[in-house]
Amino acid sequence: MSKLLYIKTLGCAMNVRDSEHIIAELQDEYTLTQDISLADLILINTCSVREKPVHKLFSEIGAFVKEKKPNAKIGVCGCTASHLGDEIFKKAPYVDFVLGARNVSKISQAIKKPKFISIDINNDETTYDFNSYRSSPYKTYVNIMIGCDKKCTYCIVPQTRGDELSIPSQIILNEIKKAADGGAKEVFLLGQNVNNYGKRFSSSHEKINFSDLLKKISDINGIERIRFTSPHPLHMDDKFIDVFVNNEKICKSIHMPLQSGSTEILKAMKRGYTKEWYLNRAMKIRSLCKDVTISTDIIVAFPGESDKDFEDTLDVMREVRFEQIFSFKFSPRPLTVAANMKDKFIEESIASNRLTTLQDYGNEILDEIVLAQKDKTHKVYFDELRSGGKVAGRSFNNFLVEVDGSEELLGLTKDVLITNPKRMVLNGKVQ
Ligand code: 5AD
Ligand code: SF4
To answer: What are the coiled-coil residue ranges (predicted)?
Structure first.
C-alpha cells in the first residue's frame, strides 16, 4: 500500500509549483492526505519574504510533532529552508531534512538520508524535466525561470532562490503540450521577473525572449488562456505591451508590482523605474486594453518614507485604480541592504496608520469597480466546485465569478451575466 504525504504550502505561486514538483517526484511511493495524523511524511514548503511566516514556522513544526504518527518524518522545504539552513535542525530537532527552494528536485534523496540538507542556491534545476503532477486538471502552472537578479534592497528572494536562470523553451513547451493533451485549457507561467525571460540560460544558446515565448505558447493546440506572474514594470517596453494587448489568448489582467509611488523611495529600493515610468506604462496598458485589470504589490513604511512619499503612492493608486492590491508593512529581512537602514526605520504606529489608510482607499476604489460589474457579461472558465451548489471560475480579466451549478460546468467557458457583485466574488447567472 502506498504511504501518505501531507504537504503544507505557504507563500507565492512559485512555492505552489515547487510543491507540485515535490508531489510529482514522490507520487510512485506516496498519496496525498489532508490528515496530518495519518501521514508518513509531513512537508512544509516555507516562505521567508516577511518575518511573520518565519516565526510561525517553528510553532507549526511543534504542532506537527504533537499530531504526527511516531515514525512519520518531517521535512522543511522552500525559502526559509534556504535562508536558515541547519539552524532549523538546532531549533527543531524533530525535523528530518531541510531542502532549499532551489533544491526541490532532490526530495527523493532527502527522504532516504537522515538529517539530509541541501540549500545550494547555485543548484541548476532549469534542465530538470520532472514527472508531472497537477493540482488542477483544468489549468497548469509552469515555471519558466528560477531565481532573481534584481536585488531590490528590501528583498530576501535573491538569497533564497539564487541568480536568475531561464528554463529552456523546449522543456516549457513540452510541459504545456502535455498538460493541454490532458485537458488543461489555461496555463499560468511563473517566475520572479517573467518578462526578463531569456536573459540567461545555463547551457543552451537560445535567442528567445518573453514575447517570443508567449507567441509559441499561444500556438499550442488546446491552450485557450495564458496568464503569467510576475512581470517587472522595468521590462514593460512597447513590444511587451503590444504582445500583451494583441495576443488573444493572453488574459487581460496584469500584475504590476509598484512597491512605492515615490521616485525617491523607488531609488532607495533599487527598483530601476520612476513614478512617471510606472504611470506611463500602466496608463498605456489601460488605454490600449479596455477591460484590463491591474493588480499590484505595495510596501508601506520603507526606511525613510516621508508623508510626501506616501502621498505619491496614494497618487499612483488614484491614477491607476488597481483592481487588487497586496499591501505590506516593510519587514527588515536578514542580509538585505534595507535591513541596515536602521536610522531611517519608520515608527510602528506610523507604518500601521499608513497601511490602514492605503487599504481603506484601495477598498473604496475596489467597491466602485465591483459595483460597475453589475449587468456586465464576463467569459468565465469554470475550474472549482464550491460548497452550497456553487461553481467558480475566473473571467478573462481575472475576476472571481460564482454561479449556481455542478460538475457539468467544470472545464467549460461560459458567458455569465453578473447579477450580484461583491468585493471578493462576483455572483452571476450562466447565459
Ligand atoms: N517587507 C515587506 N514586504 C516585502 N515584500 C518583499 N520583501 C518585503 C519586505 N522585506 C513584498 C513585495 C513583493 C511581495 C511578494 O512581497 O511587495 O512584491
Ligand atoms: Fe525580490 Fe525585487 Fe527580485 Fe521581486 S524583483 S524577487 S522584489 S529582488
So the answer is: none
Kindly report the protein residue whose alpha carbon is nearest to atom 5 of ligand 2: 150
Separation of 150 CA from ligand 2 center, angstroms?
Answer: 6
pLDDT at 133: 77
d(CA 254, CA 284): 13
DSSP 250: B
Give me the pLDDT at residue 12, please: 87
Q: What domains does the chain contain, in order, with CATH numbers?
A: 3-118 (3.40.50.12160), 139-372 (3.80.30.20), 376-430 (2.40.50.140)
Distance from the alpha carbon of residue 215 to the mean position of ligand 2, in angstroms: 25
Please tell me the residue having the least CA distance from ligand 1 atom 14.
297
Collapsing DSSP to helix, strand or coil, 186 comes out as strand
* Start-end of H helices in 68-111: 79-84, 87-91, 107-110
Q: What is 366-419 written as a DSSP string? A: HHHHHHTTTT-EEEEEEEEEETTTEEEEEETT--EEEEE--GGGTT-EEEEEEE
